[in-house]
């Protein structure tokens, strides 16, 4: 086992990997509660979506850990689930069953692109400076998500955002951040994991988090969502596939493709860079990692959930010591066990996970020091890539904006030969996205 996961080469051990896997699970366990709520608004059975979410996360994380050997966990993606429910179903009027078919199609297309090496080629064509910017931008985005979820940052009509009131769960999150910072400053192993545990215990002690009334519950029925993604394909024989061959459905599939492609690419680069796994500015086994993501999306759609993608919260596990795919396997097992212990997950609130996300943000923005800020043609796309992620509340949006400006500034600076041909292709792809899809 140690040899397969390259423990000696990566300087890790079972203890570090298990703690890392547990930390990653705790940081992303919120999806088990959030995803059923969002997809439930689209008319889907919440219990079935809960099971589908756990199974999709477990399957994706297992493939990523065993096949790609990366310490990166997968689960149905935030943002894509909201697009699925509120845009595809509630705005476009597309039945959720057909929406799952769109997710299934996007997954199959990704498998083909991964087999041909297209996705890996695109990732390796991205300039090193922009990879650093993506990593830093995701760090800012993750921090913003954590602060927002905990109520430390709230909406404001005049200024868009402002500080929230420091009371209740928000005060608990602040306490958690302070405790985790102290543990990190003392260089205590597993500081982020310990911070989550201490914050949860304190929250229950002061009645800020409800103490679970039960420990084990029965697994909800998944029959209402399982396999329905294939129904529109099978039923299409009788109606000429009218539900599938239309502009709206094409936009749905393209949006799933676009966001998952670049969210996953950005997450892979950022987490792998943080773990020190990037070699010669390239990501080893990138093709396998991308294939794992494609398989997870396809399997997830069959279980009955929106697009499954790599989770940037995996960086919290890396920060806790994870370096190999074994930690992703640990996370996968915990997602399977979570189906039996769902009541306990109520303890892992946004206030509890906020400290982990903030600390992860601090660690990830360290890549800023590697960007050539003294060169304007590099600084502009790097800065826009970084800043548009939290401001646009989307990793993909930040990547798109930065990648549009990169060939422009490089051409104007007379550095045409340094631009990879694929960057021109991405330039037009992103322009088309903003004009017709976005």
From TrEMBL:
It comes from the Bacteria. Pfam families: Xan_ur_permease. Its main location: membrane. The chain crosses the membrane at residues 18-35, 47-67, 74-94, 100-118, 130-154, 166-185, 192-211, 247-271, 292-312, 324-345, 352-371, 391-412, 419-436. GO terms for molecular function: purine nucleobase transmembrane transporter activity. Keywords: Cell membrane, Membrane, Transmembrane, Transmembrane helix, Transport. This is Guanine permease. It comes from Viridibacillus arvi.
